[in-house]
Amino acid sequence: MINGQLLKQAIISGANNICSQKARINDLNIFPVPDGDTGTNMSMTIMAAVKEIEKIDSDEVGVVAKKTASAMLRGARGNSGVITSLFFRGFANGLEGKKEANGKDLAQALALGVDAAYKAVMKPTEGTMLTVGRMAAEAAVEAANDTDDAVEIWEVVCEEAQHALDLTPTMLPVLKKAGVVDAGGKGVLVIFEGMLSVIKDGVVIEATESVDDEDEGDDDAFRSAAAEFDEVINFTYCTEFIVGRDPEIATEPNELRLFLETIGDCVVVVDDDEIIKVHVHTEQPGDALKKGLEFGSLLTVKVENMKEQHKQAKEDNEKKVSKKKKLQVAEPTEDYGFVAVAAGDGVSELFSQLGCLHVVSGGQSMNPSTDDIYAAVMATPAKTVYVLPNNKNIIMAAEQTQAIVEDREVVIVPTRTIPQGMSAMLVFDPDSDAKANKEAMIEAASNVSTGQVTYAARDSEFGMKKIKEGEIIALENGKLTVTDKSIEKALLKLAKNMINKDSSFVTLISGEDVSEEDAQHAYDLLCDKFGDDVDITFVSGGQPIYYYVLSVE
């Protein structure tokens, strides 16, 4: 039988297991856009539960399961995180009121969780984490006809989850072509396996950092060794340099190490036949460099003021904490209000100007949790709050707020891009009701085309296109249409594909990795080529990941 404390340890073990493997799970994402965050989202979602259940001492499985589900709902990030939370919400419903649970109880509870997840997804796709959860639950329910032993049942869950995961490439051709299994499905299996370790052997898997199979190499080893010393600031300057060794100098590098220890601490000296790599904290970086020159020529030098960095980091953290504290619950006195999700100061300012009282920081590869969105909703003093997720992977997390907000109506406008969100805001009619406004906003969003210029995060192949990591790619409404070595050329090709005789308005939004000069030049080129046919507006958005976002209406 499983009691509350055993279930608590099992969930912690499952959370630790996926935290340790999240990098490998992220790498299973096959689309080249830098959004491989399935493992991260799932691990952050379940870790939100760990923080809560570590505080409770109940021996009742129903109490632990309920607390887990509640915390995961609030901490859910991205679609994969939301689906994971739904698995556990149904699981909690199945164990409600129970002090202990046998294998049959676990099987039925898991089946309820899978059912809840399928119902929450508008168009469930087989070959995903849903499939892995479903097949595992079905096998467990069937096995429960012959045994109610919890260990046997959860072994069946893990075995069938592995079998289902192996089948995902046969269900989704894109997985088979890429030679990988489904990332979310792998995450589910890893969580289940972590739980089994406790249910079967009483062993909580410890969280460890994910390490690649290949050796990290000298650079990473050097950084790791140096990082061990970076906790206490006894000296001001972190000094790192590489000396190209002079073959005519026979002095051993150990002499350099001994000298550096007299003028500072945190000394690391790594050498081979060609170079000497040095790390030291000191008040005399010039003396360190001068000594290094006695062994050869300086190839690279980096000197950083750690006390200033520490001060700046502390100030930045205080600003973040202060900003969070400002989100106090507001009485719903106004008729309506807006919350948007966006990344980049310029983009956030745009939504503020359009009427969003609160803009939640987030977007591609940095999905906010349900609780982040919930806090913004509750801080909006409106009886009806419209939420614009502006990213397909944030919609489900936003939708979960509707289950936990009680004193105001929450309307989710399922915008998938920043341009869609802006277009939706522009058609809002304060004299219409919530239903009519939602319909109008969805229609406006559907009439705008979104182009995005970014880089390939991994080698990939789509259709007849072979894409190399780092190559510039452009997407039109989420579909990869352009590859190039030049950001500017990719943008122009994308614009040519998107702008037609029916187009009237074009907005170019530049990202944080584009200089003002380059952005202005790109805008001038668009105006030269298309300015006679459409109105073109430029915005410095400051968004990460995307060099440019192009809106065409």
Descriptive account of the structure:
- The protein has 553 residues and is α/β, with parallel strands linked by helices.
- It has 4 domains: 4-201, Serine Threonine Protein Phosphatase 5, Tetratricopeptide repeat; 218-309, YebC, transcriptional regulation domain (Alpha-Beta Plaits), CATH 3.30.70; 327-446, 3-Layer(aba) Sandwich (Rossmann fold); 451-552, Hypothetical Protein Tm841, Chain: A,domain 3 (2-Layer Sandwich), CATH 3.30.1180.
- It is 50% helix and 19% strand.
- A 6-stranded mixed beta sheet has the order 13-12-9-16-14-15.
- A hairpin with a 2-residue loop joins strand 12 and strand 13 (479-484).
- Helix 4 packs across helix 5, helix 6 packs antiparallel against helix 7 (150-171) and helix 14 (345-354) runs parallel beside helix 17.
- The protein is globular, with a radius of gyration of 27 Å.
What does this entry show, briefly?
With 553 residues, this protein is an alpha/beta fold.
